[in-house]
Fold:
Amino acid sequence: MEEPEMQLKGKKVTDKFTESVYVLANEPSVALYRLQEHVRRSLPELAQHKVGVASLAKYLLRPLQADMQRWEEQSQGAIYTVEYACSAVKNLVDSSVYFRSVEGLLKQAISIRDHMNASAQGHSPEEPPPPSSA
Structure:
């Protein structure tokens, strides 16, 4: 009878021991320790990989950056040219009042010239020139 009793006690001890080992193995501090070990082992390799990827990206993007800068400069030049042309057209439209005034003055000067030529030749002009309103 002692043997089954011994087996029962042995089973209880091994079950309690297994449970204790399981609890210890899954304790949060042990999990954090394992996580810390993993980070220490894999972090240098990950950092080296990141440096490699960054240098590869810089190497691949260098020609694109030069092209982009050149395109940006060209587009800025084109934008300036268009804005300057628009400003010139707007100034021309705004100065149309002055052009009309100059046109009126030229017509009046031509009329006065014709009147003076007619007077100098001894002919009387049909009508004297209108007075200037400018």
About this structure: Residues 28-94 form the longest helix (67 residues). The chain is about 85% helix and 0% strand.
